[in-house]
Q: What sequence folds into this?
């Protein structure tokens, strides 16, 4: 039997190249396929491309504070697409209860704070991705 995790595809959205690199490295080492996006607008383009190529997506992880389109707006836009049922984790420095509430209202499934611990990130990913 093959490892089902190999089929799990994650879209990771963050404007920091360093954060994208470290999170993607962590996720790929755990066996996930990762697509990176620089901000909400870039991520929506990548989602459209996935839809056109009929690719499935298991999870979206997004930052909040990004140029062009912030994470909360991005989450709201995703919820208007065919990817609306894909769980969305927020990975951010934002810990204000009001911001977290906006994220929940927009449709976020969970909230993680930076700097992240690899084990904590992978635990949260596993929790929302499995047992689908």
A:
């Amino acid at each position: 039997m093959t490892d089902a995790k190999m089929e799990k595809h994650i879209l990771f959205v963050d404007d920091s190249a360093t954060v994208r690199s470290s999170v993607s490295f962590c996720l790929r080492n755990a066996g996930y396929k990762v697509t990176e996006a620089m901000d909400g607008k870039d991520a929506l383009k990548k989602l459209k491309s996935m839809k056109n190529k009929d690719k499935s997506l298991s999870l979206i992880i997004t930052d909040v504070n990004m140029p062009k389109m912030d994470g909360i707006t991005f989450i709201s836009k995703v919820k208007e697409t065919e990817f609306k049922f894909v769980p969305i984790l927020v990975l951010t420095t934002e810990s204000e209860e009001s911001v977290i509430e906006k994220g929940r209202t927009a449709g976020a499934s969970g909230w993680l704070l930076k700097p992240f611990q690899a084990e904590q990130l992978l635990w949260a990913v596993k929790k929302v991705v499995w047992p689908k």
